Amino acid sequence: MKSNNNISGQFLSKVFLVLLIGIASISISCDESFEPREENTSYFYSMYGYLDATADTQWLRITPVREDFDPTRDPIDATVTIRNVDTGEEAVMNDSLFSPNPLVVMWNFWTTMTIEPEATYEITATRSDGMSSSTRTTIPPDFPTPIYYVYNGEEVMIVRDVKNVADVQAIWHVRDTFFNREYIFNFSHIQDSLFSPFGFSNEILFRLDANRDIGLIARQFPDTGFEVLNRQVFIASAGPQWINLYTVDDNIYTLAEGVSNIDDGVGFLLGTITKTVPWQACFRERNGAIEYAACELEKRIR
């Protein structure tokens, strides 16, 4: 069952897409052939975000490449369509204005169109004069629910049948015991990958360092205590367009096309499948023996 839950929705602002957004901004400001304050005839839209086959609603941030950086609340000149290349199904995306503060104005486009695993989608933003930016992105195959496991005294999450792991996050729900307020902390563990000790080529282990995470949380409550309400692990599988940012040379960041997959535009769009599972052990009985099994998330936190 699909869910537009807040945890997967936060993925846009998390590790890898935050970096991609920053790279797009650097690209715009550093590429000598492209000056945003001058007339631009090469790049029409900045497009970034991801299509998640496990979400009910898709959100993409699409903005015209303007001649200045002044925020405006006026509707932008863009018709955004999404098309399933395999089936021909097409939808016009709805626009929504987001303004976290007076200095930041963002246009997000959304749709409830069903996104299928392993399908390819074309997203096009078109101006009223016919000029457009577009891209195609492919959704990865679905993958089994990751399994929590204790190996050599270390807590790990086993991820199987994922070619491109884009993100692994520990999600901590805690309560400040003095003010009785609840908080959510996210910590990336994408760098904490281990070789499979079991010899399986289709699986990757990610070490979950609870002590490190707790230490970081404790810094936020130097004068009060806190209690852990819930722990979860978020895993994102990326499609073939995935770029491992940890392997990208810094010099590439200065090129508008360096990490962009947008035709006649800048930015990055990616196909994903995401899963959030409890950070805990689950078991099942098989042939009279008890073994570790995948833990399904019984209640999604919105």
Detailed description of the structure:
By secondary structure, this protein is mainly beta. The chain folds into 2 domains: 6-141 and 239-275, Immunoglobulins (Immunoglobulin-like); 147-235 and 277-293, no CATH class. Helix content is 10%, strand content 43%. The protein contains 3 helices and 18 strands. The protein has helices at 6-9, 15-30, 210-218, and strands at 45-52, 58-64, 79-84, 90-92, 94-101, 104-111, 120-126, 132-138, 147-151, 154-160, 165-176, 181-188, 193-194, 203-207, 226-238, 265-278, 282-286, 289-293. The strands form 4 sheets. Strands 5-6-2-1-16-15-11-12 form an 8-stranded mixed beta sheet. A hairpin with a 2-residue loop joins β9 (147-151) and β10 (154-160). The longest helix has 16 residues, at 15-30. It is globular, with a radius of gyration of 21 Å. Mean pLDDT is 79; it is low at 1-40 and 248-256.
Structural key phrases:
302 residues; mainly beta; Immunoglobulin-like; 8-stranded mixed beta sheet; 4-stranded antiparallel beta sheet; 3 helices; 10% helix; disordered N terminus
Reconstruct the topology from this structure.
Elements: H1 6-9, H2 15-30, E1 45-52, E2 58-64, E3 79-84, E4 90-92, E5 94-101, E6 104-111, E7 120-126, E8 132-138, E9 147-151, E10 154-160, E11 165-176, E12 181-188, E13 193-194, E14 203-207, H3 210-218, E15 226-238, E16 265-278, E17 282-286, E18 289-293
Parallel strand pairs: 1-16
Antiparallel strand pairs: 1-2, 2-6, 3-4, 3-7, 5-6, 7-8, 9-10, 10-14, 11-12, 11-15, 13-14, 15-16, 17-18
